[in-house]
Amino acid sequence: MQPESRYYVSQRLKMHYLVWGDETKPPLILIHGTRDHARSWDRTAQALVDRYCVYVPDLRGHGDSGWALGGDYSIIDYALDIHALGEAIGRGPYTIIAHSLGGGVAGQYAGAFPEKVKRLITIEGLGRWGWGRETQRPAHVRMRDWVESMRKLETRELHTYPSLEAATARMVAANRNLSPELARHLTETGVREAEGGYTWKFDNYTHAGSPYEFNMEDARDLWNQIRCPILIIWGEESWGARDQQIDTSAFHNFRYERVAKAGHWVHHDQFDVFIALVNDFLAEDLPAAAREEARA
Q: What is the pLDDT of residue 208?
């Protein structure tokens, strides 16, 4: 099965998304992470398309979606785009599975519009917000650093790889747990042809942050509005500190799963374990007989 490409508009940007399967089935949205793309979810979509119609957006500045003029890529803009996608689909409430940045975006969306999210699965998606209060840098330091980083990005060119093999090697270097077949697939669907070879399908400005840091008070307020069940998934071998107890006190109904032998891309590193957790969590919505069949 191959997905259908569709488009919608958000904040005057032409946004791309994929549709997998029968639209009479319940809607499920998959949201990728930073500098990733919709086709990275292919295996997950194929595993769920028998029960759901799966919608997979390219975030702004990623994949085949438009690039923001001026390089505006804050989490609130991404959340706006997901809200616009939900309105374009018109089939809420949605089940959402989201990775990394996508998990943060999904949390914002579910907190602002709790009635539009039925179930939420976040993979490595709470970021630093989940690890307690951090010391915030002074506003003038954040502003100066942001301005300087944006000026540097103006002169930064997209890196060109001379061949698909070279781009695939870079993909493997970023995640050595990928199988050769998956690395090649993620590369082929994540690049576009350019003069002299291939470039990734993301805007360099997605590297930019924001001088206005999203603080824990705001995060907790949004998380506290979420009323749907939440499954939080982490990889035990992921980069970043994992020696602190994650702060889930703002959530009402959640489960927390750590996956062994998995890094940041749990759904790539341990797909069978990941999809078993997903199936078990989603089966809770089914009648008893169908639930046991889904878990089998």
A: 83
